[in-house]
Each structure stands twice: as structure tokens, then as C-alpha cells.
Amino acid sequence: MPDDLRVILYPDPRLKKKSVPVKVFDDNLRKTALRMLELMREHEGVGLAAPQVGLNIRLFVVNATGKPEDDKIYVNPVLSEADGDEEFEEGCLSLPDIKVAIRRPTERVKMTAQDLDGQPFEEIGEGFITRIWQHENDHLNGIMIIDRMGPVAKLTYRKKLRELEEEFEEGK
């Protein structure tokens, strides 16, 4: 199954579902995460959440630098202790050609998650990595950047969103 994974696009309804916790830590989970890292790189992204490949599980992958040694995998992530507030433009692999200014805490965010063996770990991040964590975590909760768009951005991208909606209907 992991070989069949591909990035799905808005308005696929799987992107709006709240993901369920991962309970089984096995070879299939490992293969899925590795395939997600491949897809993230192929699409020149910095993060990819399981719902973006049609899986309803709490898993995302991240690489803020593009260097393979900086690949990170987060299973059942929980974010807390968010401080600061900064607006910055974000894109999304499931919403090609759309960039939206989103306000998020970025001075300090705590991440608690599990690795691919189910072992818990904790990280404290700041800056760009915390923005990626929050963006991908939103996907696990069925939230996309279009849900955070203001009225001007919605107006700006209404044609592109309509095109994506029409392509999705044609592809059914």
C-alpha cells in the first residue's frame, strides 16, 4: 500500500477528517512514513501529513532544511506551550499555487510525539519548524490553510479553488 500513496488535493473529503491515533507500530507504518518523505521531496515541500496521502492517522513528516539527515517523523504528535505570534506566508501541497498569510505562535512550541517504534520523545522548537509542525498538525485535525484565510485571500484565490473543485469532480 505505501507504494500507491500520492498527494491528494483539495477538496478531497479525506482532507477534512480528524485523524485517529496510531496504535500499531509496524513495518507498514515505517514504509508509509518513508514513502511520505519521498512524496514530500518530490513535491518540494517541507512537511506532509497522513491525511494528505488519504490516510486517517496521526502521522506527519517534516524536513525544514531539505537535507536528508534532517528528516523527522512524528507519530501521535501533541503541540503545547506555544508562545509568540508571527504572520508568514504558507503554502500547502494539497492546495497547489495558493499562498496565504497565516498568524501562528513561533517563538517557542513544545512537541510531544512518538517515533516509529512507539517510543515517546519531546522537542522544543522555535521559528520556521514550529510553523511546519502547526501546519501539519492542523491537517491531522481536518484544518487546511483555506480554513484560516481571510476574506481578501478567499476572494483572491476563488478562481483557483473553483478549478480544483471542478478537477476533483471530473476525476471521480
Question: What would you say this structure looks like, in words?
Answer:
It contains four helices and seven strands; from the N terminus they run H-E-E-E-E-E-E-E-H-H-H. The chain has helices at 27-42, 128-140, 151-156, 158-171; strands at 47-49, 59-62, 72-83, 86-92, 95-104, 108-114, 120-125. Helix content is 28%, strand content 28%. The radius of gyration is 16 Å and the shape is globular. The chain has one domain: Peptide deformylase (Peptide Deformylase). The protein has 172 residues and is an alpha+beta fold. The strands form two sheets. Strands 1-2-3-6-7 form a five-stranded antiparallel sheet, sandwiched between helices. Belongs to the polypeptide deformylase family. InterPro entries: Peptide_deformylase, Peptide_deformylase_sf. It catalyses: N-terminal N-formyl-L-methionyl-[peptide] + H2O = N-terminal L-methionyl-[peptide] + formate.
